[in-house]
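Last lecture ended with a question: if I hand you only a sequence, what can you say about the shape of the protein? Today we answer it with a concrete record. The protein is HDIG domain-containing protein. Below, first the input exactly as provided, then the predicted structure, then a couple of comments.
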Amino acid sequence: MERLKNNQKLLRGLVFFGFFVAFLLLMFLEFIPHRVNLQVGQVAPETIKAPRSIVFEDKAKTEEAREKARSQVPKVYLINPETNAAILGEVNNFFLNIEKILKQNISSKQKEKQIIEEMPFSLPAGMAADLTRINLERWRATQRAATEILGELLKKEITPENFTEIKGTLTEKVNRYNLSYPEKEVLILSLNYFLRPNAVYDPEATEKLRDRAAQAVPKVWVSIKQNQKIIGEGEIVTPEHLAKLEALGLLKPKPSFRNLIGAVFLVFFTMLTPLFYLYLQRREVFENLNLLILLGIISFFILALAKSILAINVGAFPEMTPLVGYAVPLGAATMLIAILIDFNLSLLMTALLALLIGFGTELSLKLSIVSFFSGLAGGFGVSHLSQRKDLARAGVNIGIVALIAILALELIDKTPLGTAFLAALIFGPINGILAAIFTNGFLPYLETTFKITSAVTLLELATPSHPLLKKLLMEAPGTYHHSLLVGNLAEAAADKVNANSLLARVGAYYHDIGKLKRPYFFVENQFGSGNPHEKLNPNLSTLIVTSHVKDGVELAREYKLPQIVIDIIEQHHGTSIIKFFFQKAIDINGPEVNAEDFRYPGPKPKTKEAALVMLADSVEAAVRSLKSPTPGRVEGLVRKVIKDKLLDGQLDESNLTFQDLHNIAQAFDKVLSGIFHNRVEYPDINVESLRKEKKS
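The predicted structure:
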């Protein structure tokens, strides 16, 4: 046993290493094997032609055009009212101060001296003496001229860039006024001195305008035809050459040891996370090597498919090429994992695979987000699978979720409205359709290859049109209707104890198919005819009755029923004793009869579902034998049957707890109360008499 466990560990380790290498190779896989390693300024060693036609965005030229558009947007300035008021106040104070000097009753020399001291700027020689001779009215006219000129100029934005240009217009504006030489000169000098920029630079508004101008510039698309020469032998490599080679996938990236190490850690921890979860939460899946291999295959397939889709180039609509990744149907992997392995594991794998799909792509975070939400939609879409068309409905859900997610992300990313809506309307539905197609297409093959019975297969088995159920209905109708009722009981109980209710129902439908070989040896198919067991000894009757288990297993294999259903057929009686024939043998041969000769061969139920079918089968048969099934008698009989099976050891290997048995009894009571309820006795009415009475 220890050696077997060690072998299992070794095999799991080898499988882990194999998929680890496969995922790493997939991440660094080159779709175009012939690549070159060129740099700007290098001489091309060979002539390179385009292997296919593509249309791609020249990002360098696009960025260059956008930067040019940004540079053409002038800076935004805001006029500062406080600066305007300060300039006008300073000019008015200057003129008022000079006016006070002119009003003084002092000598011209003293006035001249005070004017020179008051002036904040230098005056030409003799100008101060000329000013002393100006009368007050002329000086006030000069002041009014200064105020009018400043009022006109300060309405505009005066910036450091246009300040010199505006100052150059002062002489022209002063000349419009009828002023003498000293008046004009002092006016020009004062305006030049006091005038300054009145506008404050607004960097935020400027950047907004520049960003808007850059976004308005369309992307620069470059078209390359198949076999078109990209670069000739001996030519000097330019950035344009490199852009074309990179778009075609012909440019070999610089090898980076750091990238390799990062990818190793990313893949390693991405693979380790689900294994750690399974080890802690689903040990039975962790120890099932087939399921681990299946998990790896599904993950590898969806990543390879994603890489293939991301390599698609939409030549007719180049703006769509970077968005093709939105069509990656991660929901297919989520649904397959949820159906074939475990629902909670599927949600975890959705997050991890979305991370790997977005890793290294231009969309990166956006693609990961769309993949994640579409994957969740797929997982929740099959969480309560009840019919095959639920897979198609899940595909529709994926398409709707992907559409909304794509539209939201592209609008946030400020993609043009037309492109955003077109991408959402195309790639969202494609995502859902591909997910549904791949799930429906691969599900049967994966089930067969890995010997897994999914809910879809069980649903197909549960349909009344299945050949074996139709055969049971036609040849053993009593057993057929008994099986339907057992299925209802088992399903109701399974919901109460967290068992697989669909498996319990299907197992109940087929548990007695072995009775098809000799239907009239079972009481439910005798319909008032004689009971053949009355003419047989108890040992032979026991052999005939117990053989229906073996016959059922053979018939199930003939019709290719899943092994989990065959197990229920084989275990639904366990090693129970056939009390009727055992008691009959005692009555004939005495108490020395060996009870083991009257038991089913087994094995005992090993799963909750098999145990539920056993209990439902026994309870249905026992309750049906009641002469007057009142609710109290039915409830008491249900608990007696369950207790007998427990004491006989039939439930020892089923993992059912005492609380489970209590919940099962309650579920059985509820179902049976709806079947064996009291009915009103219908009066016997003579219809013919009523008709004659009405005519008369």
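Comments.
1. The longest strand covers residues 54-57.
2. The CA atoms of residues 338 and 344 lie 7 Å apart.
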